[in-house]
Amino acid sequence: MTWLRSSVVLLIFLTLITGVAYPLLATGLSELMFPYQAQGSMVEQDGQVVGSELIGQPFTKDIYFQGRPSATVGTPYNTSSSGGSNLSASNPILADEIKYRVEQLRKFNRQPDIPVPVDLVTASGSGLDPHISPAAANFQAQRVADARHLPVKVIKQLIRNNTETPPSEFLGEPVINVLKLNLALDNLQKKQQ
């Protein structure tokens, strides 16, 4: 019977350490050392929270850049069910989805002959990726410029200004946060009015 008592005591002790003390310590330290990130990296504009730097959002209007497609269940960019589609590259369903997305993007962006960047037609592993490549942004630049009645060179400069480049090629590719880029577009439009 002593083994049962020892097992129960050990279970309670480890539960308190790993289930209570460690999460409280980790949460407290992150709140203290990285408050912006610990609160979800929320982006505010005019005193209102408009999104997070870490989670993509669906932008459907032609005046905005669009992000990667979301593979989450229910609604796009649903944080409670993040995950990829889990369809293999050889799956005909995935091939049909990509073909459909390519057709839709070419129509929406009025770019019938230019290759569509892969990140605009494939979801990320989480289905929540808030970033696109500079190529994906440039693919959409003419549409956004036309919809906002701005020169395309202004839009392309905004893309360059919002491109995040890693300190080394080995640490990743340049990316653009779609929410930040769209907010920069709105701010540019406000300044011009």
UniProtKB/TrEMBL annotation:
Keyword Transmembrane helix listed: yes
Source lineage: Bacteria, Pseudomonadati, Pseudomonadota, Gammaproteobacteria, Enterobacterales
Membrane topology: Single-pass membrane protein
Protein name: Potassium-transporting ATPase KdpC subunit
Cell compartment(s), UniProt: Cell membrane
Subunit structure as annotated in this protein's UniProt entry: The system is composed of three essential subunits: KdpA, KdpB and KdpC.
Family label: Belongs to the KdpC family.
Gene: kdpC
Function of the molecule: Part of the high-affinity ATP-driven potassium transport (or Kdp) system, which catalyzes the hydrolysis of ATP coupled with the electrogenic transport of potassium into the cytoplasm. This subunit acts as a catalytic chaperone that increases the ATP-binding affinity of the ATP-hydrolyzing subunit KdpB by the formation of a transient KdpB/KdpC/ATP ternary complex.
GO molecular function: ATP binding; hydrolase activity; P-type potassium transmembrane transporter activity
InterPro entries listed in its UniProt record: KdpC
TM helices/strands, residue ranges: none
Keyword ATP-binding: yes
